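User: Hey, my collaborator sent me this sequence without any context and asked if I could get a structure. I don't really work with proteins. Can you help?
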Amino acid sequence: MIDKPWLQHYPAGVPANIDPELYPRVIDALDECFKKYSHLPAFVYMGKTLTFREVDEMSRHFGAYLQSRGLEPGDRVALMMPNLIQYPIALFGCLRAGLVLVNTNPLYTPREMRHQFVDSGAKAIIIVENFAANLQQIIGETQIKTVIVTSIGEMLGFKGWVVNLVVRHIKKMVPKFNLPNTVNFKTALKQGRQFTIKPFQSGPDDVVALQYTGGTTGVSKGAMLTNRNLVANMMQIRAWLSQVLTEGELTALCPLPLYHIFAFTVNCLAFMNCGARNVLIVNARDLKALIKEWRKNPPDIVIGLNTLFNALLNHPDFASLNFSSVKATVGGGMAVQRAVAERWQQVTGCGITEGWGLTESSPVLTVNPLGANARIGTIGMPVPSTDLRVADEQGNPLPPGPENVGELHAKGPQIMKGYWQRPDETAKTIKDGWLCTGDMGFMHPDGFFQIVDRKKDMILVSGFNVYPNEVEDVLAMHPKVLESCAVGVPDEKSSEVVKVFVVKKDPSLTEEEIIAHCRANLTAYKVPKHIEFRSELPKTNVGKILRRALRDGN
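Assistant: No problem. I've predicted the 3D structure and written it out in structure-token form, which is a compact way to encode the shape of the chain:
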């Protein structure tokens, strides 16, 4: 067996390696695309379009404003907003000023905000007004001195005035807040025109983003992502999708929030770098608005999660869309279920290309080939310049085959520098240059990898390992099931048993039908012993089902 069997099965035109040193900094790569595609549309948001030239100019003004407020290279700046057109301007402005991004979920509670801002030592924040009241509660406990408040409609002209009227006074989505010495986004841009960004020294190893993990393994930690990490992953994604990323002729639908590492790297870096027009979706849960945007801006490429694809497929208006423009659909963030992938193919005529990665890897580690060579149920093969291995509990490599399940370890230029101010946690996660992912899986002989589940989510039934993804995949095959989640619950006889939470697609679904379906498709010890019907399952803002919350009884 060769060390990297996957290389023999790489798609045509995809190189074995990329050169992560091609651009010393992320901003160097972006500057190139700003010049090359200056006249093309870069972002579309609620009918408003900004060209690459406009984003370039505004980001320079914004970066200059931040420097004028006393912020220096290396200072951390929190970005806390959904997919507004302000986001890329602020993002690139921070990079131009040498500031470190701290992407923050706008739906965070004050407690979660306090942890992230105190831990990162953030000195400034750009926040959408809807969540400013939460900031007011905790800002006194942080180092934040510069606060820029924006609104959903601030950059939309007269239409924006109407949008803000509805958001503030009809939907009442903006609680009252009192934050002294704030400025709005447009004021910051206007004032920034008076200044020029001061040059600073930086290189490939400098940290440009603290991307906090979801805290699924305890306290949320900031992954230190460097220029090299993000440049490498940008180039790896471009190389893998080269057959569909036609330079200057690409429309990408962006329903996932840009503060999430998946959309951040894929849409804001890789797609932008090839001159793409990113269509920003403010709220992916508003399926009616998403479908309307899809109809107005037919995409060439769509990125999303299994839950989003499933929700769209079950929306009555989705099938009426014209899918002829779609060249690729990329799924990540969680496992894509076979039943969802097969139905997406039937409805849209385009398969879902599943990938896999972690916040700690910027994030992409593996992707399936596009089109007919994709293998549903696997996470594909390592992207260029990436090594992957399956290891036992002692860290020894395991041979290929489904009988050799172990933890997946990854190595490559996209692997984080470490966790911010947590050397002990870094040492547990990165060993001899290998990132210990916590995902359990195996390698097929031809180099395709398959995940069976997260190490921590494994259910132990009488000494047998049960992987929740397998149970959920079987449930997804049942025509009356909309969504499901499997967890382990304590049991006196067998240590643990399987419990499933189910959202019905058909109200007539019964526990007996689920048990019969599972018995027909699963070994006896994997069949759920407890079933609980729910009207909905708890999810992160990105749409990932919160298995831990269900396991903890929420």
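In plain terms: The two ends are 47 Å apart (CA to CA). You can pass these tokens on to your collaborator as they are.
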